[in-house]
Amino acid sequence: MSNPPAYGYVDIDADTARHASRIYWDDTAADYQAEHGEFLGDSDFCWSPEGLRESELRLLGDVAGRTVLEIGCGGAQCARWLRTQGARVVGMDLSAGQLAQARALGARTGIEVPLVQGDAVALPLADESVDLACSAFGAVPFVADSAALMREVARVLRPGGRWVFSTTHPFVWCLPDEPDEDTGLRIYHSYFDRRAYTEHDEGGRAVYTETHRTVGDRVREIVGAGLTLVDLLEPEWPAGLTATWGQWGPERGAYVPSTSIFVTRRPGAPTKDQYTPLRAQHPRVS
Ligand SMILES: C[S@@+](CC[C@H](N)C(=O)[O-])C[C@H]1O[C@@H](n2cnc3c(N)ncnc32)[C@H](O)[C@@H]1O
């Protein structure tokens, strides 16, 4: 049987996605932090390449005294910022390489946070053990079964708790990974193709996978997990931001969104700080 092509769209299972992500993020952790660390900030909560910061948006509400889980924490920059805001925070990630970066950054900044290694579709936490969960592009775009991830987060959240995550905007699936207007704005792939983008090594082993869900799929996954969808943010490209991040950049960003941020909540006990829709306060967030 011949090997799959070096890259392309294939159906993947949970094990393939997990193994590929371990390989990819372990191998690239140091490069990822070297390339993006300055933009992220050592102790700052950046939701996306548009530079949206939690210090400005407050999508998680008041975090002081709350137990917060950061999923796919990478270098744990967000977890570190949450700690400075008075949260009890745990950072979790699949990749030992990323967690090693997080530990080194913790030692360098003097802001250390508890870190656990695990898979977001099988969270190593008890039922109803966290007040809030968050993720900035961690895990959601990489797991084979993101509906299972939603159910896992719903399981560990206490009633009334929020789950806020940013991920690649589903529209981006149709476009090439280029930030410029000429090539980056040509539709070349079907929005409806749910097979995972996968790269294979010479032996046919998957070494990178990225998955796609349409907007409707995401809503059904969230509602299917028993969560309530509170808001969906589609950040506009900020005036004056010239930095590019892969296909994210000012030229393409002037036309289409590349990030989506889903604000969800587990129904139950009312929280003292109700979520206020952001559109009126932040015109950049459509
Ligand atoms: C794009 S990085 C984002 C890291 C960090 N949140 C940031 O903003 O820099 C994606 C992260 O998700 C992690 N990840 C991928 N699949 C995962 C899974 N199944 N469970 C937990 N983490 C996962 C990767 O190891 C990586 O650290």
Model description:
- It is built from eight helices and ten strands.
- With 286 residues, the protein is an alpha/beta fold.
- A seven-stranded mixed beta sheet has the order 4-3-2-5-6-10-9, sandwiched between helices.
- This is Class I SAM-dependent methyltransferase.
- Keywords: Methyltransferase, Transferase.
- GO terms for molecular function: methyltransferase activity.
The level-1 CATH class: Alpha Beta
Number of spatially distinct domains = 1
- Count of helical stretches: 8
Strand order of the largest sheet: 4-3-2-5-6-10-9
CATH topology: Rossmann fold
| Total beta strands | 10
CATH arch. level architecture = 3-Layer(aba) Sandwich
- Per the principal axes of the C-alpha atoms, what is the gross shape? globular
Mean pLDDT, all residues: 94
List the ligand species: S-adenosylmethionine
What's the end-to-end separation, in Å? 48 Å
Task: Summarize the main sheet.
Answer: 7 strands, mixed
By CATH, the superfamily comes out as: Vaccinia Virus protein VP39
Percent of residues in beta strands?
Answer: 15-25%
Name a few traits of the molecule.
single chain, 286 residues, alpha/beta, Rossmann fold, seven-stranded mixed β-sheet, three-stranded antiparallel β-sheet, 8 helices, 10 strands, 29% helix, binds S-adenosylmethionine
Q: What is the topology?
A:
Blueprint: E1 7-10, H1 14-40, H2 54-57, E2 67-71, H3 77-84, E3 88-93, H4 96-109, E4 115-117, E5 130-136, H5 146-156, E6 157-168, H6 181-184, E7 196-200, E8 206-210, H7 215-224, E9 228-233, H8 250-253, E10 259-265
Parallel strand pairs: 2-3, 2-5, 3-4, 5-6
Antiparallel strand pairs: 1-7, 6-10, 7-8, 9-10
Helix pairs in contact: 1-4, 5-7
This protein binds S-adenosylmethionine.
